Every structure is written in structure tokens, then in C-alpha cells.
Amino acid sequence: MARLKGGSLGRTSGKLGNKVYRVMNGKNFVSYRPDKYNISQSKAAVSHRTKFSVMIEFAKYINSISTLKQIWNAPRIKGTTSFNRIVMFNSKLVSDSSPTIHNIITPSSSIATKNIIHFPLKEFHFSKEARIIKIVMMNSSSLFEYNLEYTLTFVLMCLEPKRKSNKYFTLDHFEESYTINKNLSEIDIDLNEELNSKLNKYKKIIIYFSASRKVEGRLKYIWSSSFAKEFSLE
């Protein structure tokens, strides 16, 4: 990088053609931009680029779901935007080819403890024959507020296509509202025809699930941590 002498240009910064002008310590400097940049093809570099691509696709999708976007915008969570926050807390959890069962669709208890509800989920199942998601509830939980309406958000990721022409993974979602009371032992949720058709093209599915509820004031939402489970479609 060369230093410019004389004051004819004044204090100059910016780009002009293949030249880049900078001011450092009150002095003008000029450097040349290379015509081409070498892109590393090392195993580590390729892995980083593919993981980044997977992460961006996952974050964009989660951020497109209004309920989840508002949840990630909650106070006390690090990051500038909901999208930025989703990336921040998920980037180390994706694989080279797809999101994983470890990725989260809502901030976990370690991120925003005061916002978390302890949803009385015992377990959940998926029947590939009946195409039904079954939520099994605990009998009771002293840490959960019953007799209120909650939104159940499901994000479904089909992966490992049966035909190479299909994308390696696809993301879909839907939401259902339920009034949760202590006598509710199970919730059965039918998948629509469009989702059923998509499942036939893949070998596996990961189902992400979270419950949330609107509240008054600046907080807007409280939510459960993400639950995730993988199921075979074969």
C-alpha cells in the first residue's frame, strides 16, 4: 500500500476503479484491489461454507414464522435482530448438509430463563402410517399455568430425499391453538395432504415443537424450550 504525498486530494477515502483510498493516522494511502480472489477448496473451508448456507436457510425460515420471529425479538436476548439471534444460537448446531435435532426454534432456558414456560410435555410421537403427531401430556405440573390458550408451533424438516433431484432437506410448519387443562392427556394433530405428499419423497423427518402464549406488556410472549425428535419415513 503506497502513501500519497501532497495535499491536492485532501483527505480521500473510498474506491475508484481498482484503487482503494484510505486515511490512516491523518495520512492518505492507496492500494490496489486484486482482479480475482482465491477461494479455498480445503475440506475445512468447504465445510464452513456449506454449514453457513444451511444455517442461513434455517434461520430465514424460522424468522419467516410470525410467532417465532416475535419470540426471538423478546427483550434480554443477545443480538440485534430476530434473524441475527437465530443465527447466533443455532450456527454451531447445524451439520454440513442440514439442520440437526439439536437446533432450536425458540430461545432455550439458558438464553432467556424468565421467559420460559415449563410445558407439561411427557413425550411426542409421529405415526408415518396415520400421518399423525401425538403429543402426550404429563398429568400435572406445578410450574405450568393451566386453563389458558396456547399456540403449538411445529416445524417439520424432511431430509434424505429418495430421489437425487429433490433438495436434501425441506422445511414446513403449521400452528394449532389449544386450551390446556390438567385433564388433557393427549393431543392428536393430523397433517394436511400437502405435507403428506412431501413425506413420501423423503426417508427421515425431524419435528421441532414449541408452545407459546401471548402476554401483556413489553414481553408479548412466553414460550417453552424447543423439543425435537427424529422419525423414519421408511
Layout of helices and strands:
Blueprint: E1 2-3, E2 14-16, E3 19-24, E4 27-32, H1 43-64, H2 66-72, H3 82-90, E5 121-127, E6 132-137, E7 148-161, E8 169-180, E9 186-190, H4 193-199, E10 202-214, E11 221-223, E12 227-232
Antiparallel strand pairs: 1-4, 2-3, 3-4, 5-6, 6-9, 7-8, 7-10, 10-11, 10-12
Helix pairs in contact: 1-3, 2-3
Short description:
The protein has 234 residues and is an alpha+beta fold. The protein has helices at 43-64, 66-72, 82-90, 193-199; strands at 2-3, 14-16, 19-24, 27-32, 121-127, 132-137, 148-161, 169-180, 186-190, 202-214, 221-223, 227-232.
Number of strands: 12
Topology as a string of helices (H) and strands (E): EEEEHHHEEEEEHEEE
Separation of the first and last Cα atoms: 61 Å
Rg over CA atoms, rounded to whole Å, is 24 Å
Summed over residues and divided by their number, the pLDDT gives a mean of 87
Alpha-beta classification: alpha+beta
Q: Helical element count? A: 4
How much of the sequence is in beta strands?
35-45%
Main pleated sheet = 5 strands, antiparallel
Helix content: 10-25%
Shape: flat
Q: Please mark out the parts with pLDDT under 50 across 5 or more consecutive residues, or reply none.
A: none
Supply the number of structural domains: 1
Structural description of this entry:
The chain is α+β, with helices and mostly antiparallel strands. It has one domain (43-232). It contains 4 helices and 12 strands. Strands 7, 8, 10, 11 and 12 form a 5-stranded antiparallel beta sheet that branches. The protein has a 4-stranded antiparallel beta sheet with strand order 1-4-3-2, with no helix packed on it. Strands 5-6-9 form a 3-stranded antiparallel beta sheet, with no helix packed on it. A hairpin with a 2-residue loop joins strand 3 and strand 4. Helix 2 packs across helix 3 (82-90). The longest helix has 22 residues, at 43-64. It is flat, with a radius of gyration of 24 Å. The relative contact order is 0.14.
